[in-house]
Amino acid sequence: MISTSDLKKGVTIEFEGNPCTILDWQHVKIGRGGAIVRMKLRNLRSGSTVDRTCDAGEKFKRLYLDRSNVTYQYNDGDLYHFMDTSTYEDIVLTEAQLGDAKDYLIDNLELDIIRYNEEPISVELPEKLVLKITYTEPGFKGDTATGGSKPATTETGLIVQVPLFVTADDSIRVNTSTGQYVERV
């Protein structure tokens, strides 16, 4: 069991019967009443994000999730197929289970799949990923005094703000947790 005083970002708990990851939390002391904890949780089964409030000192069951290495194969509508690299098993996840991770999936990408009670529920992307730019407007030298940025569409359909010197067919490194441009490769 884990108390509200031990909560941290990224910890997985059982909340209302579902495995949830804590995205954010805040301990609030209200005037005359007792302290409360506001949590922003991501349901790992459905992919939905909810805000909940509970009393300080409340306890939750801490969950430990299994991870295994998989390779992304292809998508078929809203179903995404992965292959377990050790057992060659085909694992299928829905678009809702993947959430924003679907915007970073390229063929043969190696990543970790997260399982809860042997049920695949989500994936964990590498921290940074190299994507190819398929379209961006040309940037002209001298457009701004401080640098500036422009939108660019990647091979996966993700739109990233990039510096003006980046052109179509360039490869860029993107931070998968924030979705921001890191560098040109």
From TrEMBL:
Belongs to the elongation factor P family. The gene is efp_2. InterPro entries: Elong-fact-P_C, NA-bd_OB-fold, Rib_uL2_dom2, Transl_elong_fac_P/YeiP, Transl_elong_KOW-like, Transl_elong_P/YeiP_cen, Transl_elong_P/YeiP_CS, Transl_elongation_fac_P. Pathway: Protein biosynthesis; polypeptide chain elongation. Keywords: Cytoplasm, Elongation factor, Protein biosynthesis. One of its GO terms (molecular function) is translation elongation factor activity. This is Elongation factor P. It is found in: Cytoplasm. Residues 67-121 form the Translation elongation factor P/YeiP central domain. Pfam families: EFP, EFP_N, Elong-fact-P_C. NCBIfam families: efp, PRK00529.1. One of its GO terms (biological process) is peptide biosynthetic process. PANTHER family: ELONGATION FACTOR P (PTHR30053), ELONGATION FACTOR P (EF-P) FAMILY PROTEIN (PTHR30053:SF12).
